[in-house]
Amino acid sequence: MTALDDSIVYLNGEFVPLNEAKISVMDRGFLFGDGVYEVIPVYGGRPLRLDEHMTRLENSLRGIRMEPPLSTGEWAAVFSRLIQGSHDQSIYLQVTRGVAPKRDHAIPPEIEPTVFAMCTPIAPLPIEGIKAITVDDIRWQWCHIKAITLLANVLLRQAAVDRGCTESILIRDASAVEGAASNLFVLVDGVLITPPKSNELLPGITRDLVLEIALQNGIAVQERKITLSELKAGPEVWLTSSTREIMPVIELDGAQVGEGVPGPLWQRMQALYQDYKEILRRPS
Ligand code: PDD
């Protein structure tokens, strides 16, 4: 039992303590990984980029032939009941196809989705930089859908942990695509590069925010493929996600990245990103 166990979560229209939230073993999320999810950071009690997260959720649901179970307003009402205090936290929400009468791959015609949401504190972030490895991207071809079916991502990230590293950078056809649970930025000839959105990667909300901040501040950016050799030569490599923000990679496959410390462009972007969060925290 942890302190989390009695926190209040949302399950199918009800607010219940976490340790009382139960679903059927016949839930297709459990049996098939048949569902999608979102992770939304919350600063000063306010979700960051809520509309963008909700749009991505709708896209993911459409991608697996499901309708949104709640409207954006209904989701917002759920979140405001789950968010406690003003510390940094993150909302996790998951929608599965629901409970089926029998185990059958084909989608049952009449089925109610299972809708779950919880809010947990965000762990303090390491700003001294992280170590990463490169691995072959063994995932499927619909990586733009934020599916709960994360076995490949789990194994790929564990490969990094097994080698004393934090994250794996996934390589497909000699291009660096994204991290196992993060998007990728590499500095190439003074230009900040990130791969373009496609079915090969998750359209990260943090990624879009970093691009937007860069453009607003005169930092040269380009969305294009990153070759493995550009990744290896990059004086700065960053990995972004809602819960880990902008992680500077200081060691890649055992070799030092740049000077082996978070680089000057990261320092600048980190300050701009923290300013952005601060504005959200400030009472309006
Ligand atoms: N993961 N790519 C993948 C494969 C991811 O799983 C994530 C986030 C990202 C970054 O997306 P965003 O900036 O919207 O968080 C990119 C979440 C945090 C998770 O699975 O917990």
Protein architecture, described:
By secondary structure, this protein is an alpha+beta fold. The protein has two domains: 3-121, Aminotransferase class 4, branched-chain amino acid transferase, N-terminal domain (D-amino Acid Aminotransferase, Chain A, domain 1, 2-Layer Sandwich); 130-280, D-amino Acid Aminotransferase, Chain A, domain 2 (Alpha-Beta Barrel). Helices cover 27% and strands 29% of the residues. The chain is built from seven helices and 16 strands. The chain has helices at 28-32, 50-63, 72-82, 151-162, 205-216, 228-233, 264-281, and strands at residues 8-11, 14-17, 35-43, 46-47, 89-96, 114-121, 130-136, 167-172, 175-179, 183-188, 191-194, 221-223, 226-227, 237-241, 245-252, 255-256. Strands 7, 8, 9, 10, 11, 12, 13, 14, 15 and 16 form a ten-stranded mixed sheet that branches. A six-stranded antiparallel sheet has the order 2-1-6-5-3-4. β11, α5 and β12 (221-223) form a beta-alpha-beta unit. The chain is globular, with a radius of gyration of 19 Å. The structure holds N-(5'-phosphopyridoxyl)-D-alanine. The site of N-(5'-phosphopyridoxyl)-D-alanine has 15 residues, from α5 and β14.
